[in-house]
Amino acid sequence: MAEVVYMPKLSDTMTEGVVAEWTKKVGDAVSSGEVLAEIETDKATMEFESFYDGVLLHIGVEKGQAAPVNAILAIIGEKGEDISGILSGDTAAPAAAKEEKKEEKAAAAPSPEPIKETAPAAKAQPVSAPVAQTTSTDGRVVASPLAKKLASEKGIDINTVQGTGEGGRIVKRDVDHYVPYDAPARASFTAAPAGVESYTDEPVSQMRKTIARRLAESKFTAPHFYLTLDIDMDNAIAARKALNATEGVKVSFNDMVIKAVAISLRQHPAVNSAWLGDTIRRNQHIHIGVAVAVEEGLLVPVVRFADTKGFAQIGDEVRTYAKKAKDKKLQPSDWEGNTFTISNLGMFGIEEFTAIINPPDSCIMAVGGIKEVPVVKNGQVVPGNVMKVTLSCDHRVVDGASGAAFLQTFKGYLENPVTMLL
After folding, report:
1. Which of these, 318, 319, 321, lies nearest to 262 by C-alpha position?
2. DSSP class of 302
3. I need a surface site. Which of 95, 207, 235, 280 has the fewest CB within 10 A?
4. The domain at 206-421 falls in which architecture?
5. Phi and psi for 45 in degrees, rounded to 5?
């Protein structure tokens, strides 16, 4: 009996998916657990495995096309089976229990291990391409069928590709991003001749569509107001220097900001809340979302129970998440559940900015860079290090006095970092 494969819901915010690649064509045999297609969601491009054994009888969404969640993606059955009744009949979503079982199986897929950073190739002299460590114990190259096919089409020796999949497996993205070691990467942009008008139209990715939709909803439905505060960072700079003098410890100012926000939220639960329409949810747990820039937009991985963690542990988690985000390896469990969000552009030299609230949070903090400026201390003008932060608040949940009180507590922790250790 033919089985219908529906467009899966691979993230909590996914409403439609784009088929980035089919690994099978109509008429090919398909086994349960075998990669059927690569689906681009609003967060990442993920391999989608078949739940059935049989023959691929029909492809419902062609490569590069988008379809809503629960649309017919494919039909798998016995060779020669008549599927005209399925195609002409009801294309509605399957029974809830059946679809939930599929989604749970997809969500339960293990998260790939973080990729170990490798030293960049020397620029002074070209070197020959090293052999990637992607072979099994029997000497067989561990690569997906799609990766092997793409490598063959592009004339790439699969043995020279470094695998970033689970266990070092070579997957499609490794071939797509492959750069020969004996030739530097060339810029893909060619400037137009002077005096000639030119442009390119790029299709909007699922991630960018979701960012646009969610932030537009937030900006135009949540009444934002903004509170900006200057923070004396002299003591924070000294504390960070002392902490990093310890062997194996690497603490950033962002780690200190996350910790200060987290323990300040304990004292100001109104700021750690969410607007749900008929109710306001006061979260007792503290999960801090940290905005991470990637090529196609922003992802917000979550440091869970941040108030219970130290600087070093927070830093390790954020660096791991940032690496996974850039490699498109974040899983839904990594970006769900934030109760407050931080966006830090200080490392780019930005002194001050405002951020749009990340639903369902009621607040987001925009963190600028530390700048050396003249300050008045004990009646004297002396050099000082100041950092500006701006808190965007949803006025339906947080009042001005509540937001200001939270900022004062936050300021106190950063200006006296030792108090965060109590």
Report:
1. 318
2. E
3. 95
4. 2-Layer Sandwich (3.30)
5. -100, 125
Alpha-carbon span 272 to 281, nearest angstrom: 9
CATH of 3-107, one of 2.30.30.100, 2.40.50.100, 3.30.420.10, 1.10.630.10: 2.40.50.100
Report, as residue numbers or ranges, the catalytic residues: 395, 399
Amino acid found at 199 = Y
The arithmetic mean of pLDDT across residues 172-201, rounded, is 67
- Look at residue 133 and give its three-state secondary structure: coil
Comparing CA positions, the residue from 47, 1, 53 lying closest to residue 21 is: 47
Which of 55-64, 117-126, 274-283, 357-366 shows the lowest mean pLDDT across its residues?
Answer: 117-126
- 255 or 210, which is more confident: 255
Give the residue among 170, 153, 152 at the shortest CA–CA distance from 161. Answer: 170
CB 17 within 8 A of CB 67: yes
Residue 45, both tokens: 């491009």
Residue ranges of domains in the chain = 3-107, 130-179, 206-421
